[in-house]
Sequence to fold (69 residues):
Amino acid sequence: MSNAGFYIFAVIAVIVAVLLVKHVVTCLMRSIIIVVLLILLAVAYYFFVGQYDPEIHDAVQGAWDKYNK
Fold:
């Protein structure tokens, strides 16, 4: 392969690599955002829609208070 052919191949390889990395990072960021949103929805459901148990709340609050002392 001549020098010109090698440089053309290198440029094409760099372009393909950049496009692949961009696609993978985009998909990864979408996945992370979706997981965070699902966690937030689960927390919102638990605190606002789910059953509220005062005994569990008091136990968690007591443990939290002991931890912060």
User: Anything to note?
Assistant: The mean pLDDT is 79. Helices lie at 3-49, 54-68.
